[in-house]
Amino acid sequence: MYAKNFIIVGLVVLLGQINAIFSQPFPPTKFTWEGAFSGNRAVWKDGDTLNNYTGINGVDVQVRLIDPEHINTTSQQPSEFNDWTKTNTFYGRGNFAFQTISRKKGDHACLEFTFSKPITLDSFKVYDIDMLQSMPDKPYNTYQDSVSFKASSKIGNVPLTLNYLDPNPDFTIYGQSVKANFIAGVNGDLPHTDPRGAVKVHSELPIDTFILCYQLGSEEDGFSNSHAIKILGFDFTELLGEISGNVIDDKTGLPLPGAMIRLYDMDGHLVKNKQGIIMQVITNEDGTYNFPYLPMGQYKIIETDPDDYESSADVDGENDNQIITEIDIVNPQSPGNDFYDIRKGVLAVSIADFTAKWMDQHVIKTEWNVTSEVNCAYYDVMISTDGRHYERAERIYYSPASKHNYQRMIRTSYAEHVYVQLRQSDLDGQTTTLSTVYLPWNTSKNLLKFYPNPVSNLLTIEKAEEVDVNEISLYNTDGKLIRVYNAKDNKIDLSDIASGIYFMRWSENGTIQQYKIIKL
Fold first, then answer.
1. Reduced to 3 states, what is the DSSP secondary structure of residue 418?
2. Do the strands 240-249 and 333-334 form a parallel or antiparallel pair, or are they unpaired?
3. Sign of the CA dihedral with 97 first, then 101, 105, and 106 last
4. Alpha carbon distance 50, 100 (integer Å)
5. Closest to 128 in 3D by CA, of 1, 271, 291, 12
6. Which regions of the chain carry the CATH code 2.60.120?
């Protein structure tokens, strides 16, 4: 067995205040080294000092050697075993061997990992932390491994947590450093697969830089030669954020349905989030929108006004139907990106309420109430799958006998999520869009039901056996995440939640679903 210790500076950028971030439905990203059977398989060759590994699940990782005492091993400065720092070598496939030649106590070399986006470091493991001291037959081939770790983000240094991988380790953890236990005249050399010489490092706060430094221990007897540590591939999770807001009727202060909200990057491209969903929605009756699971960065939110409305103001003080916002490691959530619109003119019909819901496959029940009908000829119920291109499902003519209340069962060929729009036409041929409702595809096979609603304490979840939903998130009307619940439970305790209107949100078949509840 080679007496080596691999220094892995796992610079893992640990992503932002976890309590402020919603739970992410994604497994950790695996960073792998050359020789691994999967992953990015990062290569570190003889003599390398800086490498950039790009596109690792959307994150770039830069690894840099910091070697002020020139103790890193290369083919020009090999160890006594004639090997050196590189990947896929004497430690086996998928591992990084960090090997140095120490001449005196305090000599050190470091690896710095820098991440292009904030991350959390989930599991970073270093093996072969051991020691060898002044054996009678080898008085000059000695060492005592000592490894220290440091992490930071744009807001300063970030604490790391170090854990033993064996209940009887051969080293001691001192804060964010480890040092092999010193015993004079003893060969404490361990096999590089032995967990007694292994440590796991992780962080609970976001980081963007991670540094590992490798040096001789303070008790080393001074006769050291080469030594190495083994750095395994590691796991990290990109910090993701959320952008949300409301569209509001500036005259009445009520939420405004039917507005198209799109999210663009600063290069003008329509954004897809980490789930691969296009960030484009039409507001429903609650007037809210939210874009979850977004990488950190700057974005542009653009509104297309509902029919018969025009922009009155945006929350940024402009009146251009666009808001620029940023989410970062300090503020991973950006709520309150509100748009204010006003009607263009006086309507022949004043809508009080419009609802639509699936009754069965291909059948939608629509109901609407109006407070006045002047010069009204008929209503058209329109259906669209993308919120832009509508086709007429049924025409309903004005009837005084209706007493301003209408109800129709609409048969459609669609069996998916749709947008249902109500249009009204005057006797003089002018047409006005009164309301637009987004209708998720909720058949008896995949509909989640919540009751009672309103609820005082316990909310019951009823779902079909085929539904595959793991988590349900509770949001307030400002788009702020309040709590995440386990969807496997059939009851949710809301006794400690303040009274008000909330929204239950979950992902179903790649689509974000939402249900409004009232907490008493």
1. strand
2. parallel
3. negative
4. 17
5. 1
6. 18-238
- On whether the CB atoms of residues 484 and 512 are closer than 8 A, the answer is no
Amino acid identity, residue 99? Answer: Q
Dihedral sign for Cα atoms in the order 429, 434, 438, 442: negative
* Whole-prediction pTM: 0.65
Looking at the chain, the domain(s) classified CATH 2.60.40.10 span: 240-343, 449-519
How many CA atoms does the CB half-sphere of 301 hold within 13 Å? Answer: 31
323 Cβ partners below 8 Å, 6+ apart?
245, 300, 301, 314, 315, 316, 337, 339
């830089």: which residue's tokens?
Answer: 209
User: Which amino acid, one-letter code, is at 224?
Assistant: S
Give the whole-angstrom CA distance, residue 424 versus residue 282: 20
Pairing of strands 297-304, 108-127: unpaired
| Domain 349-439, second-level architecture | Sandwich (2.60)
Fold of 449-519: Immunoglobulin-like (2.60.40)
| pLDDT greater than 50 at residue 135 | yes
**Strand 143-153 to 500-508 pairing:** unpaired
Reading the block at residue 175, the tokens are: 């804060």
- CATH number for the domain formed by residue range(s) 240-343: 2.60.40.10
pLDDT single digits (tens) 245-270: 999 988 778 899 999 999 999 999 99
Q: What is the mean pLDDT of residues 24-42?
A: 91
Amino acid making up residue 44: W
d(CA 362, CA 383): 12
Tokens matching residue 120: 């959390």
Q: Does residue 68 have a cis bond before it (omega within 30 degrees)?
A: no
pLDDT in tens, 318-371: 889 999 999 998 899 999 999 999 877 655 677 778 888 887 667 889 998 888
Please, which residues have CB within 8 angstroms of residue 291's CB and are 6 or more apart in sequence?
A: 242, 243, 244, 263, 271, 273, 279, 281
Cα 59 off chain centre by: 12
Q: Would you say 327 and 242 are in contact if contact means Cβ atoms under 8 Å apart? A: yes
According to CATH, the topology of domain 18-238 is Jelly Rolls (2.60.120)
Mean pLDDT calculated for residue range 436-458: 72
